[in-house]
Amino acid sequence: MTLTHPVADAPASAGARIRAARVEKGWTQDxxxxxxxxxxxxxxxWETDRAGQIRGNLARIAEALGVSLEYLVSGEGGQARGDExxxxxxxxxxxxxxxxxxxxxxxRLARA
Length: 112
Hints:
The chain has two domains: 1-80, Orthogonal Bundle (434 Repressor (Amino-terminal Domain)); 82-112, no CATH class. It is elongated and about 45 Å long. It is mostly helical. It has helices at residues 14-25, 29-36, 40-47, 54-65, 69-74, 82-93, 96-111.
């Protein structure tokens, strides 16, 4: 998923960025709540910058919305694409040895 607004135009607060990413995805607060495993009222609190339980849920919010954690926290770093998130999830499931193989392969491909 890609936000239609550039990062320079990112909403000023984390709550506003959560709301913008949710709306861009076409989700209701109920949809985001279900994806993250919280109540709709928790989502409403996040979006109005009444922190609630946002800290412990930021990574899940970012993953559910298909945005980078950096974007939610600071408005920078842009939008993590779905493929990037999928690769990150796969990487985290690998053994340390397989992670090294993947990194070596990725570096070789980046040079090509």
